[in-house]
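Chain X:
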Amino acid sequence: MQISQKLYLPTMGCGTWAWGNRLLWGYDESMDDQLQAVFNLCVSNDVTLFDTGDSYGTGRLNGRSEQLLGRFSKEYLGSGKENICIATKLAAYPWRLTRSSMVSAGKASAKRLGRNVDLVQMHWSTANYAPWQEGALLDGLADLYEQGLVKGVGLSNYGPKRLKQVHQKFVERGVPIATLQVQYSLLSTYPVTTLGLKDVCDQLGIKLIAYSPLALGVLTGKYSENGPFPKGIRGLLFRQILPGVRSLLSCLREVAQSRNKTMSQVATNWCICKGTIPIPGAKSVEQAKENIGALGWQLDSSEIAELDKAAVTVDKKMVQNIFQTK
């Protein structure tokens, strides 16, 4: 489950959250009731924007992420049901080569969800490795909007140069770009400070969505450089990063204590204060409650300045997504 601020698509109001079902890589059916409870808690707290992707839960769990999200939406009967907005990202798979393949992908996502997708997004740009492939996929994305199959269109992992090019392409077809997702956090300021994406998005009327705002959990304060570490590649990454972010975590901890908030709530609120829509994950009711605690208040200018300074001085940064373009 992922948290966000309110997002408004053309002709449609959306509430405050997003669901990114990357959590389903470790999914088993015993989690169904727990995930339904998380979904219910979110919607009942005016958290009604849910984000997934057609590449989440692939392989043995092919399409399971969208299927579950559709089921949770259908079975929820409480207040705010009419405001639920579902977003998905369509992967630029190497076998998707035509505009019709993207339209088919969008229709397949809608079938798994049991309803039309509200916001359809290009999961990543192929500009870094197969620029010839991207044009047709973008045309298919715009086709979904023109055919009335979606209410909004978004992008993910695009830099300012590519974003401007795609924006112009869509303007010529009368298709607005509603959102852009990039990796953004106190440990990944690159898209905003170096690429200047926030300014470009503001100029173009695009809302910037910050995925991985807690840096895969580094900014939660739950992990020490002495361990224990998560398993696999994530654990290896933590071993490399944690020793170099002591000053940032110390600053984050001090602000959290003075605010009577958790470190993750402060890190998430920092993203909100920067004018982005942060989407931290949650796969339990406890985590969802903690994420909700990041809303309804704001850090003051001095606290933001302290965190900004600490972020600049860290020795280690999060590795950037390999698909992120310039």
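Chain Y:
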Amino acid sequence: MPPSESPYARALGDRIHELHPVLQTYFRAIPDGDVGVGEGVLHRIGTPRRWLWPFLRPLERRGVIVACWESDVPFRVENRTIASRAVGEREFHLAGGSWTMRDAVALTRHGRVVDELGEPGLIAACFEVDVQGGALALTSRAVGIRLGRLRIRLPRPLSPAVRLTERFDDVTGRQHVDLTITAPVIGRIYEYNGDFSYRIEEAAP
């Protein structure tokens, strides 16, 4: 594939045609000068385990995950393809104010995708990419922490499992996203799910 293709399309190869046609557009490269814009509502976001919130605050300040448990949260996502990476910025309108999550996805030499979250990149998760019933499914295989130039891979017994599914509903005409993070022993420590509409438009100058 051409180097300008998205990491998701390069990881899937010909299997990208198994995705719903709308998702094929979503996960392909965005042309130079354009931006992909999604607007919708998260039905829930965060974790009800309030005792975890103090541990999540440092990650919240870096734009990785947010320490809250809220429902019906409006959000907006802007996607771009920059140097063959899928770069996203998601703004969530929470009760206490707006919060922004940033990430950049690249392809590994093993054909998986690695998502660096935070600004600057703090957490890196390596995912297997699959297609299930027309939906895109990501399952983490490794999670690491970046400290300066050093990346520390968490040992498997301590590593959280991250799962994300993106699907399109022809009845509602909306795209649905569902993410969960599960930690060993503790169980689910973070999640969000919701639906949105998506379009590609010319980027503002």
